[in-house]
């Protein structure tokens, strides 16, 4: 019987091996590798998940004051496909794609830069420090990439719902927005975006760091199966959705074509509560949950796998 193969769960950690030999110092990821791997992961991920982002944004912009144009997720997809074809679900992709690559690059680059400074003598990053590294990464991506990118994306999607769409493409849309509103027009909702992205990445990296540390146990260099990385990423994504969907709703309203109705982020929150009730802060939660879980899982899987390849071809030690 001793010669028979036994199935070993990917979650299994052999305690005897961990105790028998001292674990080495954890290998650090060079920020340059993180920037490159993050950009590749971000570009691939957004091409896969954009339709759910489109539906989420449409439902959030479908304010009760108008009466609602859509009866739900399925109806939104049906009306979009009937009116604009399947390509309609990808309207605004270019603006998001141009931003997704640098967004993920900045996020992972800043996270690895900060985490390399905050690890202990064995190279381990505890979950609390992972939280603050994620917070820093989220704020950086919000200021340098996400706010202008999201503003343009939301205006594109909102423009499609008007009787006479005025934006012909990404660069034309950016040019028209800056011409009409100045550079400030691409930075609407900055406060809400910083709060949303900061809390988003703080929650995600906190959860990912906690799960990774649990899985690796006493061996900081233990390899994690890509499927396990994806599972951990999906859990981290779900945690961030339930933690900050209200901020996402406020941010979307502040960046829409009717953003002029709100004086600032606080005024937007107050008006939503007063006119639509607390449940309005959770509009689009279901499509966002599906997108974000898939988004975070895909990004972390691709990121980790690209880093493994870069460690082979790009020596930084």
TrEMBL record:
Residue spans of the Solcar repeats: 29-117, 128-214, 224-309
GO molecular function, one term: citrate secondary active transmembrane transporter activity
Catalytic activity: citrate(out) + succinate(in) = citrate(in) + succinate(out); citrate(out) + (S)-malate(in) = citrate(in) + (S)-malate(out); D-threo-isocitrate(in) + citrate(out) = D-threo-isocitrate(out) + citrate(in); phosphoenolpyruvate(in) + citrate(out) = phosphoenolpyruvate(out) + citrate(in)
Record key words, sorted: Antiport, Membrane, Mitochondrion, Mitochondrion inner membrane, Repeat, Transmembrane, Transmembrane helix, Transport
InterPro entries xrefs: MCP, MCP_dom_sf, MCP_transmembrane, TXTP-like
Cell compartments where the protein resides: Mitochondrion inner membrane
Protein role: Mitochondrial electroneutral antiporter that exports citrate from the mitochondria into the cytosol in exchange for malate. Also able to mediate the exchange of citrate for isocitrate, phosphoenolpyruvate, cis-aconitate and to a lesser extent trans-aconitate, maleate and succinate. In the cytoplasm, citrate plays important roles in fatty acid and sterol synthesis, regulation of glycolysis, protein acetylation, and other physiopathological processes.
Family of this protein: Belongs to the mitochondrial carrier (TC 2.A.29) family.
Protein name as annotated: Solute carrier family 25 member 1
High-level lineage: Eukaryota, Metazoa, Chordata, Craniata, Vertebrata
């Amino acid at each position: 019987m001793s010669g028979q193969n036994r199935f070993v769960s990917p979650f299994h950690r052999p305690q005897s091996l961990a105790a028998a030999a001292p674990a080495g110092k954890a290998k650090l990821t060079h920020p340059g590798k993180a920037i490159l791997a993050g950009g590749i992961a971000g570009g691939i991920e957004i091409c896969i998940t954009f339709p759910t982002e489109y539906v989420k944004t449409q439902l959030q912009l479908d304010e009760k004051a108008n009466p609602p144009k859509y009866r739900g997720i399925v109806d939104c997809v049906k009306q979009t496909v009937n009116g604009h074809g399947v390509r309609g679900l990808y309207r605004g992709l270019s603006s998001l794609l141009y931003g997704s690559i640098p967004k993920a690059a900045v996020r992972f680059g800043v996270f690895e830069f900060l985490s390399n400074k905050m690890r202990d003598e064995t190279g381990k990053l505890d979950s609390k420090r992972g939280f603050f590294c994620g917070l820093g990464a989220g704020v950086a991506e919000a200021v340098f990439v996400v706010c202008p990118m999201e503003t343009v994306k939301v205006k594109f999607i909102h423009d499609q719902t008007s009787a006479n769409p005025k934006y012909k493409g990404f660069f034309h849309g950016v040019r028209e927005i800056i011409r009409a509103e100045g550079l400030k027009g691409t930075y609407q909702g900055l406060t809400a975006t910083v709060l949303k992205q900061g809390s988003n990445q703080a929650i995600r990296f906190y959860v990912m760091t906690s799960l990774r540390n649990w899985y690796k146990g006493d061996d900081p260099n233990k390899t994690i199966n890509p499927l396990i990385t994806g599972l951990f990423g999906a859990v981290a994504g779900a945690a961030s959705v339930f933690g900050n969907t209200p901020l996402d709703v406020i941010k979307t309203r502040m960046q829409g074509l009717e953003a002029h109705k709100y004086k600032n982020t606080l005024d937007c929150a107050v008006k939503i509560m007063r006119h639509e009730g607390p449940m309005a802060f959770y509009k689009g939660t279901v499509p966002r949950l599906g997108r974000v879980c898939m988004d975070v899982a895909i990004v972390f899987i691709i990121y980790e796998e690209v880093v493994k390849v870069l460690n082979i071809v790009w020596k930084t030690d």
